[in-house]
From TrEMBL, chains A, B, C, D:
Biased composition annotated in UniProt, kind: Low complexity: 10-24
Domain named GFO/IDH/MocA-like oxidoreductase: residues: 168-314
Keywords: Oxidoreductase
Region annotation Disordered: where it falls in the sequence: 1-24
Protein name: Gfo/Idh/MocA family protein
Pfam families: GFO_IDH_MocA, GFO_IDH_MocA_C3
Keyword Oxidoreductase: yes
Superkingdom of the organism of origin: Bacteria
Oxidoreductase in keyword set: yes
Gfo/Idh/MocA-like oxidoreductase N-terminal domain span: 30-153
InterPro entries: Gfo/Idh/MocA-like_OxRdtase_N, Gfo/Idh/MocA_oxidrdct_glycsds, GFO_IDH_MocA-like_dom, NAD(P)-bd_dom_sf
Record-linked PANTHER family: BCDNA.GH03377
Length: 424, 424, 424, 424
């Protein structure tokens, strides 16, 4: 039957993976993914689609997906197109047909899996935030550096760098179109915790999630700000808040904790932040402000970033991700203003392979681009961006945020401390 | 090897296609696509992805793709994931593993292929516009009706109905949220012909393309207006224009026509419209205005639609396709206004299967939704929307537009003539 | 008392009006206004404020206001700052202290008053539309031309030309920033007639209002389109509609027509259009579309205009009147887009005298600018824009619209007929 | 002559001022304004226009304006319509025809003038910020309280409270439409200092201006946030920055400081902040963020405020001051979203007296509304808002901001310290 033939064609190529750690030569690279929830679905779409759209140096093969619940992981494999299912990530890493380990689990397991995979000779793609602590992130970065010497690559999944508008913004900034940077302001606003009766999921418990809006949303905007600015944050001042301090236990959990029936749902303590608000300075002395919250009614995914420089400004809103606003301050004042660039031209990053101008891309395309870029990094042996070191830097900023929030918002350097910004 | 296993799993099910014309029962349905350019790439993405996202009654199998150039079609098959390649559409239709024929060719071949496929017992999906003439569209609709009696379905690819914001808009209108309709205004603005030296491609020659902006963009907005309003256009008044009446012949064509070398590119006549501007009346008496053009500098894909009714209004712009603007005129004036609905909630059409709120979809998702809906229609034996009869109605409107444009814009009924709108 | 002193200071100047028709020389010019409703209030604000903001060649003095109801006109004089009140416009014209007659009455009295005022040696500012018929407008234009020979000026109050964004748009177009024009599309959408029980005021009766949305809103957008394009409309194709054909008689009127009490309000026929929809061609061959309606729920004052040319495009919305969108099509595609110019820079028209950048102006400022420009025209003896001839041209377009609407939308030349657009 | 008559009519009324401190009874109230630059022009427009638009309990009379340069102040009096000119503010206060003293000078003279005026029995309107120090503001507030006992009123000119969209926002919040407040974020972005060669005016020198962006822009947004939220800020964490630390001396100043000619302009030190970035907590525990800067290229007057509560959200941008965005979080998610309310309906604050719906107001209308509200407060003997006590509270916040900025951004309570926010 026809659908078989596609596979047979692949089989018939008999080529060895390009850039495969073992030094093999065919153009296929097996991917093994750990975790298959929201991120797993998005990554699957990325792996499945990248080779259909881009001219890739290697064809990604969805070799195996891994999860603890055997039945569930098999269903996920069927749905998302993974050839095999595993229930122990160690087994996944051990597979010969897995060359890339893609880690989509919650943050508390990132370090163990990533280090093991790297040490086993695999390339690694790890979801953000890189880890739940600086120590873990340091260990991971060290492992990545060791692996790098062996030709392996390690990338962290800050996918918003791969929204074409953001990649293009970085290009404009790198070209000097903003000049000396003065301000960066970023918010990431969501509203799914506004309802005080939203249940107490694992994401709201520190032991599992590490932190709340800070690690989930804040990590994205810290990375994006540093990526776009092309320089690190050197210190922060922060406040965090948990507005709703107890929430109903989920049905199962409640049953487990309470013998009694009837009445209102039992509530448990929320142990992570609902919101994090912080300011900071970049290495150049530019001022930056950040807000990450799950309590902004009506804002669904409002990652908004604006950068102001001496020669121009840029603005972006993830809810309108095909657009970039650019103000060129070197133009005559009377005819200047923020222009809405529809980032869908063939000259824009990634767009040469997509649809004609004006035909919108969406959220999931960032994962297609991520897959593409990782495969290029593997093929060319170049360090992928964002690297684990980039992820570690974000982790250090988050740690400084938490420290500042505990110390009455006092300005707290991001370690290791850089020299103070020069007088301007 | 792992990637094989996916296929083996499929093979192991041994099920017959659901809703397959031959009465077989397995859950796989083979698709055969004719044409593999822009639309072919988009449809391929739809077929590949639908089953990964939605819970479908049948699994679409990319059986074979067809094109006249054997080498090129084989490359396209590889790129887009089609199991086989054919060079004659008659052979494609004859394949046993093809249950659905998906027609992505230019309009002049739609009728012949579609009628043959339907007569051969296949389901048909045909790109828009349905045909290049009313007569062809009538023949296709007759064939579809004959096939319908045999349990086959035929759908025309007006994919913009399947932008979730548009499907949701239709739902709001059907629920009466706009009340009695007064105005529909739609534009579809692009700018790729602004440059007078853009070459004379086949799309600019009447013998191949039928018409210009009218058939390409105008067909979309006529269908969308009628779909949303829930009623047909009954008459139109139109002007069309070809602003740039000659264009450089494409490199190859030029060589063919001219012995001489050197000098500027030779130019040939543009024989279709660059722009079409028309007004009309819906069956209810509402006024409608339409503009389709490829000469609107800076507008890349500006399909904009607004509907005003006695109880509310809706507005949409395809360049921001995740948003719908809705004004509820029954609310107190002081606190009312057009609200920007981010059409990404699980309650919105198609969104139950996609990402969390605020995570944008893009252009190509309409093709995933189209594949899903066609498969449901096949499985349930219901008439798909838009049907060939819907496509024929659009064709009749376009014919009335061309007739009016030739007759000094005089109001021209869309045939067959409906009774005049009632006094209001 | 202090407030007296201001006047005494003025008195002490003893200067004669600049540009006064009688050849006098002082820098004060007396204004006599006929009508004091909505337009009268706006014009009063213009006359009171112009000299406080701009450096004028003559100081406008609010000499007298005229209305038929003596008590009401005296109250209006008090409220709006007019020194005297008259109840017969002939008496107003006859006043020696009136050098400018400002006509703010409904259209049916424009011609008689304007011709009399011009023949009496006064400058005239007449509200739009210039008249209720072409014949009246022709007579007024003839009178203006006679008066022009005597050094008088006559201007028609198409105030939207004096929104700074519109004046600036005209400047950009005149400088060639749009290149050859292809498209003009304008709507003027309001919603105050959506409610079918809005009463039957005089504006909805043909004998008083001439026409409905067409003369009220359509006149504005026809003038604005021609002003911006810098060329006239040469022909139109039109549909008009009266969606709600009877409305409750106003309280007083109802009492007059009905002996009976109780029950629902009596209704009378609406004899003007609710909506007018028309397309047309400019002298250059550019296509234009127009929609004027009072039935667009949620649109309060949505005068929206977009112009597309070979080198760029402009867009404007009166609901955001401090902004102009400009796309420069000569820029590289990757970094181009519609830029939002905040038209509040000192380099922008009229803005040198107002607030710092970013400090918004409003609707009424158009009347301040109108007063300023009229006074400059008087002082310099130049023809003001828009002239009565401009107003007549708009009237001819409206007449062609009504004729086309009566003739099944057939394309109807605007008389006197210009040569057909050149082949392009 | 006509213009005289207006005054004679006023004179003829013979009424005594309503609410005049001396107990007189006529409906006129004399205003004496100190300062006549930007703010003076805006206030003049407010005083001149208020009685033409609103039905006021007293008619404001522009009695006298005061400035140190006799010739210049006389010219300003002429231009703006003030009956008399004074060169010493003590003389202005002493005038019998001055009942209201309107202080439009830089902040360093506010305290002395305001206290003297209040002690002399006058009503006082004082521009923001109330003073350059907390001590001054305390003295002024004490004087206002003493005066209040004598029936005088004192108001501070935070005019943005009187943008109708802001007044209406406050009404919605007071009605509970946002529910419990979670977030307030406000920026006030301008760009006139981006150019490093913008000259060193007095506004950039601490001894004259007190502070930079903080006192100028920051004062506005602190007041607006507290006004809208209906509760005070209780503590802040702040960073400030002077990006450009030296600037060219203005022509005159340079000459004064430098013997030498030729070469580039001499530069002097900027001693105030260019930018201030701070976070804080409101009494209810809501988080707030603030940014005031003159270095945001392309942002002309971007006072943007967003408030998120448990039941809804509001957003506003001063560059589009006729609009308010409102999200009602109690509506069904599928049809909810931020609605754009055009705040021009007769039901909106102040709008009953202005133009029809959709006809925009501008910046200067806030001063008309301010005049109206002050006159009502005088007539009714009610405390005006914002009172001097409100201005003092803002001053205390600014002091805490400066203290925090000096102390490494540590969280600094606004004094007098309120009890800590309750546990939520």
């Amino acid at each position: 039957m026809a659908p078989r033939e596609e596979t047979e064609t692949e089989a018939a190529t008999g080529e060895t993976p390009v850039g495969a750690p073992a030094g093999a030569s065919p153009p296929a690279l097996g991917v093994g993914m750990v975790g298959y929830a929201f991120m797993g679905a998005a990554h699957s779409q990325g792996w499945r689609t990248a080779g259909r759209v881009f001219d890739l140096p290697a064809r990604p093969v969805l070799a195996a997906v891994c999860g603890r619940d055997g039945k569930a992981v098999r269903a996920a494999a069927d749905q998302h197109g993974w050839a095999a299912a595993e229930t122990d990530w160690r087994d996944l890493i051990a597979r010969d047909d897995v060359h890339i380990v893609d880690i989509c689990t919650p943050g508390d397991s990132h370090a163990e899996i990533a280090v093991a995979a790297l040490d086993a000779g695999k390339h690694v793609l790890c979801e953000k935030p890189l880890a739940n602590s600086v120590a873990e992130a340091e260990a991971m970065t060290a492992a990545a550096e060791r692996a790098r010497a062996r030709g392996q690559v390690a990338m962290v999944g800050f996918n918003y760098r791969r929204v074409p508008a953001m990649t293009y913004a970085r290009r404009l900034i790198a070209e000097g179109r903003l000049g000396k940077l003065r301000h960066v302001r970023v918010t990431y606003l969501q509203d799914w915790l506004v309802d005080p009766d939203f249940p107490l999921t694992w994401r709201l418990q520190r032991e599992h999630a590490g932190s709340g809006a800070l690690g989930d949303l804040g990590a994205h905007i810290v990375d994006l700000a540093q990526y776009l600015a092309g320089e690190p944050l050197v210190g922060v001042s922060a406040m965090t808040e948990t507005f709703v301090r107890s929430r109903p236990l989920p049905a199962g959990a409640s049953a487990g904790l309470s013998a009694g029936g009837g009445g209102a749902a039992e509530r448990g303590p929320v142990t992570v932040d609902d919101s994090a608000l912080f300011t900071g300075r970049l290495a150049s002395g530019a001022l930056a402000s950040f807000e990450a919250t799950r309590m902004a009614a009506g804002r669904k995914n409002a990652l908004r970033i604006e950068l102001n420089g001496e020669r121009g400004s840029l603005a972006f809103d993830l809810e309108r991700l095909n657009e970039l606003s650019f103000h060129d301050h070197t133009e005559p004042a009377a005819s200047s203003g923020f222009r809405r660039i529809l980032v869908t031209e063939p000259e824009h990053p990634y767009l040469e392979a997509w649809w004609p101008p004006g035909h919108a891309l969406g959220y999931e395309h960032t994962f297609v681009h991520q897959a593409r870029d990782l495969l290029h990094a593997i093929a060319t042996g170049t360090e992928p961006e964002p690297s684990f070191a980039d992820g570690l830097q974000v982790q250090r900023v988050l740690a400084a945020v938490e420290e500042s929030a505990e110390k009455n918002a006092v300005y707290t350097p991001v370690l290791p401390e850089l020299p103070a910004p020069q007088a301007l």
